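Pipeline run #58 for the internal structure catalog. This entry was flagged by the ingest filter as a single-chain record with no existing model, so it goes straight to prediction. Upstream metadata was stripped on purpose; only the residue string is passed forward. Reviewer on rotation: M.T. Logging verbosity set to normal.
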Amino acid sequence: MRAESLSFFKSLVEAPSPSGYEQPAASVMRAYLEPLSDDVVTNVMGSVHALLRGSDAERDGRRVSVMLAGHIDEIGMMVTYITPEGFIAFKPIGGVDEAVLPAMRVRVHTKEGPLLGILGRMPIHLLEEDERKAVTKVHKLFIDLGMSAERVKEIVRVGDPITFDVGFEEFGEGMVVSRAFDDKMGAFICAEVLRLVRERGGAKVDLVVAGTVQEEIGLRGGVTSAYGVDPTVGVAVEVGHATDFPDVDKRKHGEAACGKGPIIARGANINPTVFRLLCEAAESAEVPHQFDGEPRATGTDANAIQLARGGKAAALVSVPLRYMHTPVEALALADVEAAIELLAAFVLGLDPDTDYTP
């Protein structure tokens, strides 16, 4: 991966952006996309939309367009109460796994900047025997800022967001680990596709890259972006569950492995013509790829895109991810690059006259 792209990827992933607090990630997206795009706007929800106009997009009085969407929010936590002693009670934002929380380092994002905190609970020596065997509930945990109660109450406010204090690192053989690959990795891929499409001479159709917000609490940015952009075709770019580590039942969860390419979804949420075109693009670009069967809704912004207005031609492309919704999400950089190549080939090959009616 080129150095500039890797730097952007790291900056985007590390920008603190729990659902409802995505402004830092949105700022990183805008700074990267503005020099590459014909127009960049941020809607009232906070989602970022970058437009690259197509050379032959006008049809019957409207523009034919494709929207690539990756959400820029991450799971996190929120301050809900400060104890008289200056410890912080909190609640999750999105699907936080309670089992991984004790002893984590976090950042509390305050009006005076981020503060390092530690997630505390009673030490194992002081727990009752049955408590040692159980996952500690969130309401039994607290955040210690190492400060006096008076100082904590001066700086910290109820509603301040909290993120895990971990960042982007390369490890092993072509792997990377971080919090928040779900789904700032998808937003990164969308931005890189726009860059490649521009460098390769542009597409016939308009390309809109959407960094959507509040996906983790109900696909809200996806709903509003799909309605506002009103694309002809929409592809959600997401993380998918890798099943290449111990104890995963592939009969229940299917097969997907890191390093074997992006995952193209099939099912009721996916337009069959767009699915076919994605497969053809993968083959023409000689990109390794995998498949996932989704018999119902995918649980991604593809749901929102498909149901926008009178219905849209929607699809989902994912990158295999290990340990989703933890501070150690892991993926293969080769899969990210393959997804970029696949989607660039897909966008460049779109014909404005294509009928997506099944």
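catalog note: The chain has a mean pLDDT of 97.
catalog note: The longest strand covers residues 233-241.
status: ready for reviewer M.T.
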